[in-house]
Every structure is written in structure tokens, then in C-alpha cells.
Write a structure and sequence with these properties.
- The chain is of the alpha/beta class.
- It has eight helices and five strands; from the N terminus they run βαβααβααβααβα.
- The chain has helices at 13-26, 41-52, 58-82, 93-103, 108-118, 134-141, 153-169, 183-197, and strands spanning 2-6, 31-35, 86-90, 126-131, 174-178.
- Strands 2-3-1-4-5 form a five-stranded parallel sheet, with helices on both faces.
- The longest helix is centred in the middle third of the chain and has 25 residues, at 58-82.
């Protein structure tokens, strides 16, 4: 299976991706855990540029994310799926649609089309959306924030709305999870949802 985790920064998606991976590995399943942007040497360089570089035009940002993703799919994700591994990815195409397509106003379909071309049409079997309001997510982040995390509250509200829009548009692959529960409760809910779907 190809499983992605989505949500606001601070929603707990990274924690849940790791917990799910550990659970599946304990069941004897080969799991590859990765993240976006990143996952490959080129992807990590792009990650540093988009998250810690200077200002950039929205389409430049979208194109850089798509470039990282193209390399990620070619070098890591497709080979892992081809050998029968389960791939768990912290963010994927839906992040670009939510952040650049909707929150930055580039257009849902235009950013989706760009990314479908970049990944050769590869989309996840399931997308776990950890839902939490921006104030709660921001309180969890603390510390130093990257270029995207420093955007204003209006931007993050648009991102949250974008994820709700994507979940409604792609209900067959989205699993919506209340991110306000404890990590263990959330992990059980995710595992249960995946079992029901398998």
C-alpha cells in the first residue's frame, strides 16, 4: 500500500506516520517511511531551499515541490512499491494542492495537473488527514518556524479549508481523523480505519 499523511504543521501527522510504521513492521510488513519535500538527496536540497530560503513566487514554489516529488517517486517510492513494501509518506501531492493550489491561489486543478505529470499519475491508496484547528497546531509547533510555518493565520486557515475540500473531493482515499485525541487513541483509530479498508 501507498499511504500518505496530511494536515497542518503541528497536527501530529509525523508522529502518526512513525507509529503506523512501527505497528506494521511489528506485523512483519516491510515499510518504507519517507517525507516531502525530501526523501532523496535532491529532495532534501530542495526542502532546504523552499523551507529556509528567501521569498519565492508561488509558481516557483509549486514547481520546486513538484521537482522534489518527481525524483522521490522515481528513486524511492516506485521501487519500494514494486518490491511489495508499504510506503508511508509524510505529505505528498495533496500538500501542494492545499498550500500552493488553494491557499496561494494557483488553482486546485492546475497544481494537481502539474503534480500528476511529475509523478506519472501515482497517487496514494489512502490519505490520512489529521484534522486540528490552527491555534492548537500552532501551540504544538513552538520554537523556530520555517518559511511556510511563518505565514499569517489567514493562510493557514485557507490550508485547513483546502484539506476539507480535498477530503470531500476524494472520499474514496481520504480517512479523516480527529487530531485532538491522544497519540495512542489516534493511532488506534488510523489502524482500525486501514483494517476496514483492506
Amino acid at each position: 500500500m501507498f499511504i500518505t499523511f496530511e494536515g497542518l504543521d503541528g497536527s501530529g501527522k509525523t508522529t502518526q506516520a512513525r507509529l503506523l510504521a512501527a505497528r506494521l513492521e511489528a506485523e512483519g510488513i516491510e515499510v518504507v517511511v519517507t517525507r516531502e519535500p525530501g526523501g532523496t538527496p535532491l529532495g532534501e536540497e530542495i526542502r532546504n531551499l523552499v523551507l529556509h530560503g528567501g521569498d519565492m513566487a508561488p509558481w516557483a514554489e509549486a514547481a520546486l515541490y513538484a521537482a522534489s516529488r518527481a525524483q522521490h517517486v522515481e528513486e524511492l517510492i516506485r521501487p519500494a512499491l514494486a518490491r511489495g513494501a508499504t510506503v508511508i509518506c509524510d505529505r505528498y501531492v495533496d500538500s501542494s494542492i492545499a498550500y500552493q493550489g488553494i491557499a496561494r491561489g494557483l488553482g486546485l486543478d492546475r497544481v494537481l495537473d502539474l503534480n500528476l505529470a511529475a509523478v506519472g499519475g501515482l497517487m496514494p491508496d489512502r490519505t490520512i488527514l489529521i484534522e486540528i484547528d490552527f491555534d492548537a497546531a500552532a501551540a504544538r509547533m513552538g520554537g523556530e518556524r520555517d518559511r511556510i510555518e511563518r505565514e499569517d493565520d489567514g493562510f493557514h486557515a485557507r490550508v485547513a479549508g483546502a484539506y476539507a475540500q480535498l477530503a470531500a473531493r476524494f472520499p474514496e482515499r481520504y480517512v479523516r481523523i480527529d487530531g485532538t485525541a491522544s497519540p495512542d487513541v489516534i493511532a488506534e483509530e488510523i489502524r482500525g480505519a486501514l483494517r476496514r479498508d483492506s
